[in-house]
Amino acid sequence: GAVVSQHPSRVICKSGTSVKIECRSLDFQATTMFWYRQFPKKSLMLMATSNEGSKATYEQGVEKDKFLINHASLTLSTLTVTSAHPEDSSFYICSAPGTSGLRAYNEQFFGPGTRLTVL
Amino acid sequence: SQQGEEDPQALSIQEGENATMNCSYKTSINNLQWYRQNSGRGLVHLILIRSNEREKHSGRLRVTLDTSKKSSSLLITASRAADTASYFCATDPRNSGNTPLVFGKGTRLSVIA
User: How, if at all, do strands A114-118 and A10-13 pair?
Assistant: First the structure.
């Protein structure tokens, strides 16, 4: 099946620094990727839709200047948390819909997630 | 508001017992999916059921869908300790395949050996 990777899997940073998280589709192309945020024992909340070749679409309440998204190629989307604060500490997960030949009727493929801790 | 409300929110059972989790949603759908998430890990796709299906099986998993009640259930039979995880239902309201899924709140299942 299709594989989506994320890097790093875990990052600890100081307040005020920026952190970049990468999401890669390893064996398929993804013109669209989604970024979710998950707090402990909570569900996934969509943050933004990353579009290759165009600007990302952000959900209401998500600051686009704080969470910068760049869909650099058909296999890579990056999420940069700028000027991180402790309240940004969370689990960030990306997903990509598989191409029609791969996915079983709208299945999406999820990365393993990145645990961000801001001190 | 987020659709896909699972209940119970937490479930603890003994190994060998069956676990049933329910999910309700609000909008019309073309399919509903169930995912599993081990603590601190990504999501694993378990099963997809289409709106014209009422029941689907995959190994020890049985999913039902009642579109008239806008609800679905996930049954795990003969549970194992390794089934301990959070389970989420998810829908794609626009059914385009290129839109994000809407997740329920999830059920945290603990299977005690």
Answer: parallel
